[in-house]
């Protein structure tokens, strides 16, 4: 009798999970929206935070950077932990921690407390991000439906990144700076009970003990690598101790982590996934796409504000078409993937993005709204097409039992690509910009050297000099910045074309019949142990 009842209950749960999978997607998208918002919403609040808490220069840097730094370093740890103890469990714990940390950040009365709260937000984000993708992989076993779900998921990510600064600006006009964190709390209070009720639990096959040492090595190694890359992006010398030390330590730890995983019978991350061309190529494409996107967005924002003289709000509105185009690409991505296949889709996305970047080299010292609109629309559509195809291929290629680890690898690649992009393209920009200010007539060598650090600093020096010398320096700085922008765009186009060549290793067609492979079984949670297994 009890066995019959249990079987009936499992059948009802299985049917309910199928009927509500799109509701599950909504819950997962809300999770992603919160994490994406928190990555950008603080940017507009930095002046208010500085005025209220009076942080030092180093403290201010950590207030901004500690969230993405901690989040990136812990993705593999929590992604693989979810495979072991249950992805829903890790996600719900991440919800709770994110809500508590948001309250602590909003009420922080010192820079140190805000840094600590932001670090806890990073921990919560690292628990949420890979769990959303791995649960999505479980809930949508059919690849065609999963592609549509990933498209919606990626469109929500684009919305969150764009809405963050706009929402932060609105809140700052009406409330104090802590309100940018308080918006997370009501959403988390809703997400926790709904997630507990609706989200399915799953985990990978628990073969052998969880490699705690390996997880800590990966976390520390990624922390060092991301910190070193951020130092490069912040203008630190590559050979300086603040850059070289974390890079070398991070690289050594990651090398030791890889060797350890290769030797273990039951590794934390199955590195054999990288032997699959579709998986390794997808990861490489994510890195290159993010490398181009983040560096270009940063430089484009500087161009719009400092060269064209637009306000921050006008700058955000000019960049909005990029986000709208990215949303559109995410929503039509599933149909494109079915029609053209991963190889053509990702390769074409890189090529469209490269064409957009080359188009933007026509930007000069005067405003050309039509050119910027066309370039940003192509840029957003091409990059999102690339990222969508790469993410979908990577997640579909990974065994279901390794879904959390695969999602963590994808998100880590995303974060590393973003950091490397700021460092690399920023360095190219500086190398092309600074020489144009070395010999401005009438400007002392010390002032020329200071102006060569950035366009904003050049404007400050020009204002201090005043008169004809200041005007000459200001004009030279604008021309040098535009020249540096053109060089940076061409370098970025070359990297994007390299990505297009790399994408030729992806499968030609979208294979919707995933064969069962050893070790790829998905293990349901104990409460659903007698139900059907989910496999892709």
TrEMBL record:
<keyword id="KW-0472">Membrane</keyword>
<dbReference type="InterPro" id="IPR020846">
    <property type="entry name" value="MFS_dom"/>
</dbReference>
<dbReference type="GO" id="GO:0005886">
    <property type="term" value="C:plasma membrane"/>
</dbReference>
<dbReference type="GO" id="GO:0046677">
    <property type="term" value="P:response to antibiotic"/>
</dbReference>
<feature type="transmembrane region" description="Helical">
    <location>
        <begin position="412"/>
        <end position="433"/>
    </location>
</feature>
<dbReference type="Pfam" id="PF07690">
    <property type="entry name" value="MFS_1"/>
</dbReference>
<dbReference type="InterPro" id="IPR036259">
    <property type="entry name" value="MFS_trans_sf"/>
</dbReference>
<keyword id="KW-1003">Cell membrane</keyword>
<feature type="transmembrane region" description="Helical">
    <location>
        <begin position="344"/>
        <end position="363"/>
    </location>
</feature>
<keyword id="KW-0812">Transmembrane</keyword>
<feature type="transmembrane region" description="Helical">
    <location>
        <begin position="369"/>
        <end position="391"/>
    </location>
</feature>
<protein>
    <submittedName>
        <fullName>MFS transporter</fullName>
    </submittedName>
</protein>
<feature type="transmembrane region" description="Helical">
    <location>
        <begin position="90"/>
        <end position="108"/>
    </location>
</feature>
<feature type="transmembrane region" description="Helical">
    <location>
        <begin position="114"/>
        <end position="136"/>
    </location>
</feature>
<feature type="transmembrane region" description="Helical">
    <location>
        <begin position="316"/>
        <end position="337"/>
    </location>
</feature>
<feature type="transmembrane region" description="Helical">
    <location>
        <begin position="279"/>
        <end position="304"/>
    </location>
</feature>
<feature type="transmembrane region" description="Helical">
    <location>
        <begin position="148"/>
        <end position="168"/>
    </location>
</feature>
<feature type="transmembrane region" description="Helical">
    <location>
        <begin position="483"/>
        <end position="504"/>
    </location>
</feature>
<keyword id="KW-0046">Antibiotic resistance</keyword>
<keyword id="KW-0813">Transport</keyword>
<keyword id="KW-1133">Transmembrane helix</keyword>
<feature type="region of interest" description="Disordered">
    <location>
        <begin position="517"/>
        <end position="536"/>
    </location>
</feature>
<feature type="transmembrane region" description="Helical">
    <location>
        <begin position="210"/>
        <end position="229"/>
    </location>
</feature>
<feature type="transmembrane region" description="Helical">
    <location>
        <begin position="57"/>
        <end position="78"/>
    </location>
</feature>
<dbReference type="GO" id="GO:0022857">
    <property type="term" value="F:transmembrane transporter activity"/>
</dbReference>
<dbReference type="InterPro" id="IPR011701">
    <property type="entry name" value="MFS"/>
</dbReference>
<feature type="transmembrane region" description="Helical">
    <location>
        <begin position="241"/>
        <end position="258"/>
    </location>
</feature>
<feature type="transmembrane region" description="Helical">
    <location>
        <begin position="174"/>
        <end position="198"/>
    </location>
</feature>
<feature type="transmembrane region" description="Helical">
    <location>
        <begin position="22"/>
        <end position="45"/>
    </location>
</feature>
<feature type="domain" description="Major facilitator superfamily (MFS) profile">
    <location>
        <begin position="24"/>
        <end position="511"/>
    </location>
</feature>
